[in-house]
Design goal:
The chain is mainly alpha-helical and 230 residues long. It has nine helices and no strands. 32% of the residues are buried.
C-alpha cells in the first residue's frame, strides 16, 4: 500500500501544481517565482517518470494490473508515452547496461548533447507528437489556457525533466570510461549525500545501487547506499 500511496501523491502533486500554474492570470518573467514554478514543475515531471520506472520493476503495487496501470497513467501524463514499449526497452537496459544492446546507451555519441538527441529520438514517436499537439490545441482553443502558460509550465518543464532524467539517470552513470569499479553493471554512482541525491534525480544518482537492487523503490533506494562512489 505504501507504493500506491507514494505513487498517487507524486501524480497528484504534479497535476495539482500544473493546474494551479496554468490558471495564473499572467506569467511574469521578471519574477523569481515564475522560474521557481518552472523548476518545481520540471522536478515533478522527473518524479512522474520515476514513478513509472518503479512500476516497470513491479514495486508500486503487488497486483500486476494495478502496477502497470499506474505506470501507464504516469507515462501518459508525462508526454503521452506508451508503457509497454518503454517497459521492454528498460528491461533491455538492465540486461545489457552500457553496451551496444542497451537502447539507452550511445557508443558513438559520448558527448551529452548528442547522446541526449539519440536518447530522445529512441523514445519519441510520431503518434506521441500528434497527441501532444492535439492536447496543446485543446488547451489553447477549447480550455482557453494562455499559450505562454502552456509553454512555460507544461512544455518547458517536460523537456527539463527529460534532460534531468537523462543526465543523472543515464549519462553520468553509464558514460565512458567504464572501469572495474563500475562492474558488473557498467554504472557509476553518486557520493553518499541523500539531500543532493533526492534533489538531483529522486535518488537515481545512486545508480549502481539501483542496478544491484532493481526491486527497491526510489524512496528506499538510499537505504542501499554504501561507501561506493562514482
Amino acid at each position: 500500500m505504501m507504493g500506491i500511496a507514494i505513487a498517487s501523491a507524486v501524480i497528484l502533486l504534479w497535476a495539482g501544481h500544473l493546474v494551479w500554474v496554468l490558471s495564473l492570470p499572467t506569467v511574469e518573467f521578471t519574477s523569481f517565482g515564475t522560474y521557481l514554478h518552472i523548476v518545481l514543475q520540471a522536478y515533478l515531471y522527473t518524479g512522474l517518470f520515476i514513478t513509472a520506472h518503479d512500476c516497470m520493476h513491479g514495486t508500486v503495487a503487488a497486483n500486476r494490473k494495478t502496477n502497470d496501470a499506474f505506470g501507464q497513467v504516469a507515462l501518459w501524463l508525462f508526454a503521452a508515452f506508451r508503457y509497454r514499449p518503454m517497459f521492454t526497452n528498460h528491461m533491455r537496459h538492465h540486461r545489457n547496461p552500457g553496451t551496444m544492446e542497451d537502447p539507452d546507451f550511445s557508443v558513438e555519441h559520448q558527448h551529452p548533447i548528442r547522446w541526449f538527441g539519440k536518447f530522445f529520438f529512441t523514445y519519441v514517436t510520431a503518434t506521441q507528437l500528434v497527441t501532444m499537439a492535439l492536447l496543446f490545441t485543446i488547451g489553447t482553443q477549447i480550455v482557453h489556457i494562455p499559450v505562454v502558460n502552456l509553454m512555460a509550465f507544461w512544455v518547458v518543464p517536460a523537456f527539463l525533466g527529460t534532460f534531468q532524467l537523462f543526465y543523472f539517470g543515464t549519462y553520468r552513470p553509464h558514460k565512458y570510461p567504464h572501469s572495474t569499479d563500475m562492474a558488473p553493471h557498467n554504472s557509476r554512482t553518486l557520493k553518499r549525500n541523500h539531500v543532493w541525491a533526492m534533489l538531483s534525480c529522486w535518488f537515481f544518482g545512486y545508480h549502481w545501487e539501483h542496478h544491484e537492487h532493481p526491486r527497491i523503490p526510489w524512496w528506499r533506494l538510499h537505504t542501499t547506499k554504501t561507501s561506493r562512489q562514482g
